[in-house]
Amino acid sequence: MLISGQCQCGNISFNLEWLPDPTKIPAWACSCSFCQTHKGVWTSSPAAKLQVHINNLTQLSRHTFGTRTADFLVCKQCEDIPVVTSEIDGRLYAVVNVHALHDISPALLKHLWSDFDGETVEARTNRRRQNWISNVTITSPLNA
Ligand SMILES: [Zn+2]
């Protein structure tokens, strides 16, 4: 299944190739205050392939906080956060925001609640390595 998505204004867009076709798409609502404020609801599949394209890099800001192991890709134009990346042992992993997905049937979504407060950095890294999208490329006109 090929799923496309983008921030509201389209500056950050992506194609997500989710194989095999998902019967359910997990939608993890994160309980941290940042995700609550920014409607962060995340999904990923370890076997999926994600291609992110950024039209205008000057309109991209990267937010890191907490354990500083993840980069929230924020569009400065519309303030959406369509993608979060994490580099683990030189490999880029990612999750995408369910709100940024196009044409996803609500029936496909399986809403889940996550509370990662108190998780150690090691546990967090292992969880990402197992669950996050592990084939991630980011392109933009400047580094194409
Ligand atoms: Zn945008």
Molecular structure report:
- The protein has 144 residues and is mainly beta.
- It has a single domain, classed as Metal Binding Protein, Guanine Nucleotide Exchange Factor, Chain A (Beta Complex).
- It is built from two helices and eleven strands, in the order βββαβββββββαβ.
- β8 and β9 form a beta hairpin.
- The relative contact order is 0.26.
- The model has no long low-confidence stretch (mean pLDDT 92).
Which distinct ligands sit in these coordinates? zinc ion
What proportion of the residues form beta strands (DSSP E)?
35-45%
CATH topology (level 3) name:
Metal Binding Protein, Guanine Nucleotide Exchange Factor, Chain A
- Work out the helix count: 2
Tally of strands: 11
| H-E string | EEEHEEEEEEEHE
Task: Write down the CATH class.
Answer: Mainly Beta
What Rg, in angstroms, do the CA atoms define?
Answer: 14 Å
Offer a quick outline of the entry.
With 144 residues, the chain is mainly beta. It has a single domain (2-139), classed as Metal Binding Protein, Guanine Nucleotide Exchange Factor, Chain A (Beta Complex). It contains 2 helices and 11 strands.
Helices and strands, with pairings:
Elements: E1 2-6, E2 12-17, E3 25-30, H1 33-37, E4 41-43, E5 49-54, E6 60-63, E7 71-75, E8 83-88, E9 91-97, E10 109-114, H2 121-131, E11 135-139
Parallel strand pairs: 3-10, 5-11
Antiparallel strand pairs: 1-2, 2-5, 3-4, 4-9, 6-7, 7-8, 8-9
Bound molecules: zinc ion.
Residues 7-9, 11-12, 75, 77-78, 80 line the site of zinc ion (ZN).
List its salient traits.
single chain, Metal Binding Protein, Guanine Nucleotide Exchange Factor, Chain A, about 140 residues, about 10% helix, mainly beta, binds zinc ion
